[in-house]
């Protein structure tokens, strides 16, 4: 083989190896994100909206039909639309959670949310959440739920 061909093959192998290493979110990261989501559902179900909201990063956004809103708008929306005073109108659970990498400190979580109970019709929808890894752990940076 010529030096150019060897160099080209080496470059391809290095690129392949470095690309394939970013295709998986570590199992620790997957477990942390899924566990955090399940805990947030528990917090919701207990009526602890502040702790539920703590999974969101302080600069997080939520997509609405009118465009993105910030953390305060999110909390206001949850309180108005989904809570009766201090308790949720319905319980929350997450299903079909799939975590995908978006780089070293970012991940995409897709799945299904289900609102159920309290003699109300069960409602569900889909979500896409972009997570960022901070010192405090994985935090939601952007939420697009429908």
Report on the structure:
With 146 residues, the chain is an alpha+beta fold. The chain has a single domain (24-145), classed as Roll (Nuclear Transport Factor 2, Chain: A). Helix content is 38%, strand content 40%. The chain contains four helices and eight strands, in the order H-H-H-E-E-H-E-E-E-E-E-E. The chain has helices at residues 3-21, 27-45, 49-53, 71-82; strands at residues 56-64, 67-69, 83-84, 87-88, 91-101, 106-116, 123-134, 137-145. The strands form two sheets. The protein has a six-stranded mixed sheet. It has a two-stranded antiparallel sheet with strand order 3-4.
Key words describing this protein structure:
8 strands, Nuclear Transport Factor 2, Chain: A, 4 helices, disordered N terminus, alpha+beta, single chain, 146 residues, two-stranded antiparallel sheet, globular
